[in-house]
Amino acid sequence: MTPVELSRTVLHAVRCAVDAGDLAVDPHRLSDLPRRVSVAPPGPGGHGDYATNVALQLARPAGQPPLRVAEVLRPHLAHAPGIRDVQITGPGFLNIRLDRGTGSGLVQRVLVEGLRYGYSDLLAGRVFALRVPYDVRAEVLADSLSRIVASQGGRVEVQHEESAASSPPSRPLSVADGTLVLRPLPAPEDPAPLGPDAARWALLHPAPHDRPRISADHLVQRESNPFFRVRYAHARTRAVHRNAADLGFAPPSTAAADTDLDTSGPAQTPLLRLLADHPRLLSSVVPADATRPDPGTPSRLTRHLVTLADAVIPFLPTVLPRGAEKPSAAHRARLALADAVGSVLAGGLSLLGIDAPDHL
Question: Structure pTM?
Fold first, then answer.
């Protein structure tokens, strides 16, 4: 279960509680009910996999203390598919522990959806007019925003203006005559000598209000280069898959609905959490109740990919059998997880307009 799916599950529990009369809401306050619910890893003192403050949001329309609202919502949420346990902490935070098999289902979903994992119809039918100057960084950022918005079912229409000089650097996105005006801080020099992929990374990795660094550091193949680490991690997942095929084993078939992958373990847990967070990151390109795409989404996506790459690289040596060891179900499960991570890395790079080679 991804955070986006869990958010919908929480929202469904709220509606069930209201429909059942367990949560009395003033009919004049029904419009105050949240249309989207935020879930995130629990903070200090929290438990489980995710936490939500929906009870605090509902306290006013329900006319009850947040703790009481949380107590009403807990049984509706605890019986939802994919949820193992729900605990209440603090003033009314709902702490959610997912089923152990959820990791298995998540990996299989990524393998089935491939590069389109995280795509949705959240923005279906919505069109955003975006005006950008004739500036290479603005063009690249607009292109990546267009790709991410399209992954959520929306569309961006890009228009051009002559100059970015009239825009203060502290405001990369503004509104003029109903049209969004995107003017990120321009690059200090031409990034073209870096090549198309490294140039795009150099322009997208910093936040729009930060000046990009254009240097040959983006081309070096060493750990100090985050761009290299992301593409290296993807290439290593593909190499592990090829090596497993040479040894005569593959991940369990995703066509088998009853296949259960043992994805538990200290190394797998952060990978699963990062995989599960990928759809939420893509869907946040237009924040809830907002009317414009967030120009910071591509830079957040680059950081997400770096974190995922850094988590999978030390995990990969555990995938293949060692010495005389025979391939086991555990190896196949790890291989499936490595394949899933590789798909997300490749899919994320494609949304940035960057190639993900199988060999480096």
Answer: 0.75
